[in-house]
Amino acid sequence: MALQKTLYVGPFIHCKTLTTLDVCTSAVIGVGEDGKIAFVERDVDELQSPARQGWEDAKVVRIDGSGWFFPGFIDTHIHASQYPNAGVFGKSTLLDWLNTYTFPLESSFTDLKKASRIYKRIVSRTLSHGTTTACYYATIHVPATNLLADICHNKGQRAFVGRVCMDSHLSPDFYRDETPAVSRDNAKACIDHVRSIDPTFDLVSPIITPRFAPSCSAEALDLLGELHNETGVPVQTHLCENHPEIALVKELFPGSKHYTDVYDNAGLLSSKTILAHCVHLSSEERDLIKIRNAKISHCPASNAALTSGCAPVKEMLREDMTIGLGTDVSGGYTPSILAECREALFTSRHLCISNEGGGVVNGKTKKSDEIKLSVEEALFMATRGGAKVVGLENRIGGFEVGMDWDAQLIQLDDVSDGEDETLVNGDVNGGEEATFAEDVGLVDVFGHESWDDRVNKWVYGGDDRNTKAVWVKGRLVHKRQGASV
């Protein structure tokens, strides 16, 4: 359906820098028929703005109450096929979790009816949580991977969709590529399919996806590196998630200096490479990642759930490494990037708690402020940082003129006009109040809060009930019941 010029009226918030938010309490943002931001007018009379811009016939979306527009979230690492297992990991760690829970589920995606049911739900679910861009791992199956790309395209989510490549003898017999050439050829088949539905990769892009080094032979990695260099298609994989994995890589690739060097030797480490986890990088590995300008996806929920460790993200940010957030479903238990912001904040505090509050990172004692992330830094990784990770920093992650309107409408429950006497008096009116409370979410504002307070309350207490509407490139892709958009 063709888009129409639209005026978005009300407060907006986005990240100005890594450590500062830009809060505009009264704005008019004009989004053209191409889904791009045509103008931003700050602190203006909304009645005069349409005439001044020649947009008198434009549609108007106005925020009522205690809400604001915020850039869409970018999930830089998520396994779409694993969504049914979200929250199911027991006491396992990475390598046994893969064999116990993950490979049996992924291998079942020969069933396209099952794949369709799961993929439709995870795309809808992530959109409902404000995720406008997602980097998806699918499975080894070409038809199911292509189906995921089709679903993302049809639902309007910006996505990078990767067919998982894994040919190593360490992978189970029932779930692996027969040869290195099959890994390459099937990856290319998925690239060709995405090109057929989105020739310029404007909304959906393919992404070359060697699962991780232990799942791939050296020959397969080399062939995928050649494919990356030939096509320019980005790469996603895992790196230094836990200590047994790192030891296994050292055993499997004795000719490499370290884990990161395995990917570099194969031609898979470049400015278009997304490296998930990076919990236990050596200083030499960090230096190599910076030289290659590769990017990092921080997945704190998964890192905690699988007992992998706490990545020293604050330190890596200070080194100017490019970092976004990833839910890593289903190592991570939730498809919510907002929840991942919380996990990132708490992970940094857990690092700080060690050694009497000073924290120890890479054997060196650090002051707490050098370890703890701020809300602003977490939101930056969720938006502008993620945009840079996926190579779209000039198109998404903020509200500058010329950028795509990838946005979410955030609404908190405003009770500043007085207490809810019905709830205070204990009269639930047949359950209506209980239903209302469920619809508006957990965050209440009482009128005295600053804008920083509101953002903090949202980050620490918010969920998808506060995400009233979501747009990708100007297209409304999610709307909660009752939202006025």
From TrEMBL:
Top-rank EC class of the record's enzyme: hydrolase
GO MF terms, alphabetically ordered: guanine deaminase activity; zinc ion binding
Superkingdom of the organism of origin: Eukaryota
Stored SUPFAM superfamilies: Composite domain of metallo-dependent hydrolases, Metallo-dependent hydrolases
Coiled-coil residue spans: none
Protein name, per record: Guanine deaminase
Lineage, highest ranks first: Eukaryota, Fungi, Dikarya, Ascomycota, Pezizomycotina
Function statement: Catalyzes the hydrolytic deamination of guanine, producing xanthine and ammonia.
Reactions catalysed: guanine + H2O + H(+) = xanthine + NH4(+)
